Automatic annotation (TrEMBL), chains A, B:
This is Transcriptional regulator, LacI family. Gene3D superfamilies: 3.40.50.2300, lambda repressor-like DNA-binding domains. It comes from Halomonas korlensis. CDD domains: HTH_LacI, PBP1_RegR_EndR_KdgR-like. PROSITE patterns: HTH_LACI_2. It comes from the Bacteria.
Length: 340, 340
DNA sequence: TTGTAGGCGTTATCAT
DNA sequence: ATGATAACGCCTACAA
C-alpha cells in the first residue's frame, strides 16, 4: 500500500494475484469464460475485483482490430433533429455492444475533414455521417479501407455508401396534399440554401414540381437564415399579395420553422388563416397558438436504421442501400383553415 | 495493386516506402518533426501521403498512455441545456487537442454505471459527468487511478471533484428580485423531484428561504413531470386562489417551463398578468406570446470551464474547485406585469 | 482446462 | 540526425 494513487492494474497483475496465467484472465474477460473451471473463475473474479481491474480497450483493439467504436459526425449538434437521431443511434449502438464517438463540425468543411481523420485514427468500425461539406475523397478512402459508412440525411454524389433519412419526396407530397386539402392555394416554400445539402435540393425541386402538378401557385425562398431581412421581406411580400385564407407557408426544416414563425408573428399574421406547416417536429410547436402543424421525422427509427446498416455492411460487404423513412403529419391549428 | 481493399498502412510500411526507420516516421508524426532533416521530412510526407497513412491512436495510446480522449457522461442528451454545454465542451476539447466521447445515460443509474466502466476502459484522460444516480464509489475509484473529474451541474456528496455549473442561489435570488420588482407577491415554484439532482435541491431551498426573507408567499410543487395531472392541478389551484396580477410561476428548468407553459395556456391564463419566469433559455421562449422571461445559463462558458478544470487538474493535482456561473435575465412579456 | 509465445502499431530508450 | 530494440496490454494460435 503506497502513498501514490493506485496504478491501473493490468491483466498480468490479475493473473499473478489469481495464481493463473494471462491467458486465463483474458479468457475470463473475453467470450470464453465458460471454458474456465469454476474455481479458476472465482479466483480471477476475486483478484480482478480486488485490483479494480478493467481490460484496456485500447490494447484490446490494437490486437484484435476491434475498437468497438462507432463514429458519428454531425453538421450541427445543436439541431434538435440531429440530437434526436443521435439518441436513436446511441441506443442502437449500445444494444450491439458498440460505443459511440460523436463529433460536431458546426457545418465547417475544414473541421469536418480534420474530424474524419481523427475518427479514422481511432479505427472506428463504422461511421455515420451527416455531411457538412463534400468530403467524398476522404470517405471513399475510408470505405476502401473497409470502414462501413452510412450517410445520414445528406447524400454525397460520388461516395458509394448507404443512405438513411427522410423520404423527402413523400414528405413534400404529404405537405402539399394536406395544404391543398385545407384549401390553401398559394404556397410559399422557405428553405435554407439548397446547394449545401442534398435533401434541401430534393425538397425544393419536389415542391416546385408538385405545385405545378396540383395547379397550386408556388413560390420559393432559399436564402440563408442569417439574412433575416431577406427572409422577412419575402414573407411580408407574400402576405400582402392575393387573398388571405388562400396562403400557406411551408418550412423546409425546424430552423426555418423557427425563423418563419418569428417573422409571421411579428407581422401580425393569424396562423391558420395564413397556413403554416413545418418539416421537423419541435416541442414548442404545440405551444404557439393555435399550434403549428408539422411533419414529424421518425428520428429514433432513422438512428436505429443507420446503425442497422452499419452492422449489415460489416458482415457481408453488401451493396449500399437506401432507407427513406416516412414522416408523420401532426395537424394543429396553423393549417386548420378558417376561411377555406 | 491487389483486388482486395487497401489494408490500413502502418508506420513500418511508411518507413520502408520512405527509406527511413520507424523511429523517424514516429518522430515526424509526433512532436519532434523539427529534429528531422528537410530531406527526410519530405520523403516521409510523400510516402505517408501515397499510402494514406494515419497513426493508429489505439497503439499510440497503448504505448504512451495518452488516449487524447475526454469522456462526457450526460443524464439527458435530449435536453437542450445539456447539448449547449456539450457544444462548449467539445470546442474546448478540440482547442486542447482532445477528442470527446459522449455517452448518454437517459437518467438511468444502471446505464450510468456501465458507461462509466466503458469510458474507463477507453482510458479517457478526463471525465465530465452530469450524474444521473450517485456513482460515488466508481467515481472515487477513477479519481484514485488519476483520472481528472469534473461534476457538471449536479454535485455528488462524497466525491472529491471539481464542480461546474450555475450559481443556483444567485439564480433564485435574481428570479425573486425580478418577480418582486414586477409586483408579484404570490409565487409558485415548479421543480422536478429534488432528491435526484443537487441543483434542484439548492434551488428549492433557496426559493423557500428567499420568499420568507422578502415577505413573499411561496408555494412549491416538486412532483415528477410525468405526472401531468398533479402538475396541472397544482397550477390550476394556484390560479384560482388570490388576486391575479399578484401571482407568478417560477420554473426550475427548461423541461418544467415547457410543461408549465402548456398547462398555463390550456388553462387560459394570460401571461404577464400571471407571471412566468423560467430558468434555462430556450429558443421558443420569445415565440409564445407575449414572450417568456428566462434566466439564461451561460452554457458555452460552463462547457469551457469544465474542460479548463480538467486540464488544470492534469498538470498539478490541484484541489477540487467550484465554478458557479451567473445567469442572465432575459425579460419578456411574461413578467411584464400589467396590473402591478 | 490451462499455459506459452508471439505479435498488433506505436513510442521511448539507448545507441550510432 | 537517424536507427535498432524493447516495451505498452492484450489476444490468439498452438501446446500440454
Amino acid at each position: 500500500m503506497t502513498a501514490t494513487p493506485h496504478q491501473r492494474s493490468t491483466i498480468l497483475e490479475v493473473a499473478r494475484e489469481a495464481g493463473a496465467s494471462k491467458t486465463s484472465v483474458s479468457r475470463y474477460f473475453g467470450d470464453e469464460r465458460e471454458r474456465l473451471s469454476p474455481g479458476m473463475q472465482t479466483r480471477i473474479a476475486t483478484a480482478a475485483q480486488r485490483l479494480g481491474y478493467r481490460p484496456n480497450q485500447m490494447a484490446r483493439s490494437l490486437k484484435g482490430g476491434h475498437s468497438r467504436l462507432v463514429g458519428m459526425l454531425v453538421a450541427d449538434i445543436r439541431n434538435p433533429f440531429t440530437v434526436a437521431v443521435m439518441h436513436g443511434v446511441e441506443q442502437a449502438c449500445q444494444a450491439h455492444g458498440y460505443s459511440l464517438m460523436v463529433c460536431n463540425t458546426d457545418n465547417d468543411a475544414a473541421r469536418e475533414s480534420a474530424l474524419l481523420a481523427l475518427l479514422a485514427s481511432y479505427r472506428v468500425e463504422g461511421l455515420i455521417i451527416n455531411a457538412a461539406g463534400s468530403p467524398d475523397q476522404q470517405l471513399q478512402t475510408l470505405v476502401d479501407q473497409g470502414t462501413p459508412l452510412v450517410l445520414l440525411d445528406r447524400e454525397l454524389g460520388r461516395t458509394e455508401a448507404s443512405v438513411v433519412g427522410l423520404d423527402n419526396a413523400l414528405a413534400i407530397d404529404m405537405a402539399l396534399d394536406h395544404l391543398q386539402a385545407q384549401g390553401y392555394r398559394r404556397l410559399l416554400y422557405l428553405s435554407e440554401p439548397p446547394e449545401q445539402a442534398s435533401p434541401r435540393h430534393v425538397r425544393l425541386a419536389r415542391f416546385q414540381h408538385g405545385c405545378e402538378a396540383r395547379g397550386l401557385t408556388g413560390h420559393a425562398h432559399d436564402q440563408s437564415l442569417e439574412d433575416t431581412e431577406a427572409l422577412s421581406q419575402a414573407i411580408r411580400h407574400f402576405l400582402t399579395e392575393g387573398d388571405s385564407g388562400q396562403k400557406a407557408v411551408l418550412c423546409a426544416n425546424g430552423n426555418v420553422t423557427l425563423a418563419a414563425t418569428r417573422i409571421l408573428l411579428a407581422s401580425g399574421a393569424r396562423l391558420g388563416e395564413t397556413g403554416l406547416l413545418g418539416i421537423d417536429e419541435l416541442d414548442w410547436c404545440e405551444l404557439v397558438a393555435p399550434g403549428i402543424s408539422t411533419l414529424a421525422q421518425p428520428t429514433d427509427a432513422i438512428g436505429r436504421s443507420a446503425v442497422a446498416c452499419l452492422m449489415r455492411s460489416q458482415d457481408n460487404d453488401a451493396t449500399p442501400t437506401r432507407h427513406r423513412h416516412a414522416p408523420t403529419l401532426i395537424m394543429r391549428g396553423s393549417t386548420r383553415n378558417t376561411r377555406p
